């Protein structure tokens, strides 16, 4: 018997209690719908999502959160599948999330990765979620952070957050994970010169992938060069010196060492005393507070953009600044006054 979409029970509107119960039960369909809810930008959905997240929050926070980045061609999808399937084979539940602010323009790559990660994609203990189809980095990052709460509450104890965007997306992902892993290609040389210094500064672990066959010697040389480069940089964390490892995601060698290092990183931070607690908890707490202020800034900008009087004044003030008729500072003060947030030191 054929059913219209309206007849399918899972299509019915869910209450907050429905979402919470389904997520805590680990129901994959409800987890997917809960993530769709947090991705929505509709005001009524945002209210419902926040009510849901408040109830899920006590059940989240226990997972290993690992950020993964790397240049195109480094083998991210192969690496994630190799790591993910090894973890699920060891009894863990793995969620893969993406931060891709470019996907609205390019169609994104995570969907392609999902089709390539066929083994992990079919694993009942894995959950792969594409990035929202469009949006600013701030919006996509918000959705990813809130999706982490959902999947952790659903029992996924390893969350892999892939950055497939450009620019600030690596820093944004580093701010939402416990360990930030950068995949590198075997031939260091020019790549070492061209890699963004900022990426090395926030990396907790560099992994030279494709260390197999003819690439083995190049991978070992690259490892030595990366170690030298990291030696002269300030560590991302005072309690941890970034490591450099080699692996072959294709042959699945070195993957165990990568995961052992992820676990060691957490153990080191949990053992380091900080202000009456430990460095791991302090890092998580600091990320939450910085995320709160990021949300404040995003919402203030959104409110500013949506303010009718600000929109009316903006075009005239932009033209005046462009012509040199007024300074950017005075124009900014004027917009803030129109908005109702005039600076006291203006």
Task: Note the total helix count.
Answer: 16
Rounded mean pLDDT score: 87
Overall helicity: 40-55%
Q: How many runs of DSSP E, i.e. beta strands?
A: 9
Strand content: 5-15%
Helix and strand content put the structural class at: alpha/beta
Low-confidence stretches: 1-8, 105-112
What coarse outline follows from CA principal-axis ratios?
globular
Largest sheet: 7 strands, parallel
**Distance between termini?**
70 Å
Q: Strand-and-helix sequence, N→C?
A: HHHEHEHHHEHEHEHHEHEHEEHHH
The main sheet orders its strands as 3-2-4-1-5-6-7
What gyration radius follows from the Cα positions, in whole Å? 23 Å
What are the main properties of this structure?
seven-stranded parallel sheet; alpha/beta; about 10% strand; two-stranded antiparallel sheet; about 350 residues
Please give the structural blueprint.
Layout: H1 16-24, H2 28-39, H3 43-56, E1 64-70, H4 76-89, E2 94-99, H5 103-106, H6 110-116, H7 118-121, E3 126-128, H8 137-153, E4 158-163, H9 169-174, E5 179-184, H10 189-194, H11 197-202, E6 205-208, H12 216-231, E7 243-246, H13 255-271, E8 273-274, E9 277-278, H14 279-306, H15 308-322, H16 328-339
Parallel strand pairs: 1-4, 1-5, 2-3, 2-4, 5-6, 6-7
Antiparallel strand pairs: 8-9
Helix pairs in contact: 1-2, 1-3, 2-8, 15-16
